[in-house]
């Protein structure tokens, strides 16, 4: 039986939050693709009798970067924590926690909706589905120039992403992580499926 549904925003509310916080088109496209990957994982897990809340996965994926554009000119803010605040203040504190954790996933995080969104985000660069390895090649190139501490954090995140990948795919028979690179898009919020 699927888990109980916490209070979640409608698609209209999600779009309003996107607009209110100035989500840029490229971040919207990234969020659609993260949602596509997360919902595919949700479906594959369900086919293997591991049930998660679809609406929580979809809402979390679409809102995980709600504060990204808002924080671009505010380097003192973390987009995940600001996103948590935005989503919680809109009346969705449980979803806000998912948004916060899409960057800093606790070590003991169980296989749940938060874990799927975290991992799905680590499989998308821009709006392209890539391997974890390619995602972190991009991250090192863009963000790995700053400091030894920054490089160590990226390395930790990369290793954590591989651990999460194993955690998810232990529950999915007949599929491999590279299969995600060949998926078709879900019809998410009137966005047409990809060809």
Helix content: 55-70%
The CATH architecture can be named as Orthogonal Bundle
Structural class: mainly alpha
Our count of domains comes out at 1
CATH fold-level name: Hypothetical protein af1432
Percent of sequence in beta strands: under 5%
Task: Give keywords.
globular; 195 residues; 56% helix; mainly alpha; Hypothetical protein af1432; two-stranded antiparallel ribbon; 9 helices
Q: What report would you give on this structure?
A:
Residues 189-195 have low confidence and may be disordered. The protein has nine helices and two strands, in the order αααααααββαα. By secondary structure, it is mostly helical. α7 (113-121) packs across α9. 56% of the residues lie in helices and 2% in strands. It has one domain (11-182): Hypothetical protein af1432 (Orthogonal Bundle), CATH 1.10.3210. It has helices at residues 11-20, 25-47, 54-63, 68-71, 79-89, 93-101, 113-121, 132-143, 148-169; strands at residues 124-125, 128-129. β1 (124-125) and β2 (128-129) form a beta hairpin. A two-stranded antiparallel sheet has the order 1-2. The longest helix is centred in the first third of the chain and has 23 residues, at 25-47.
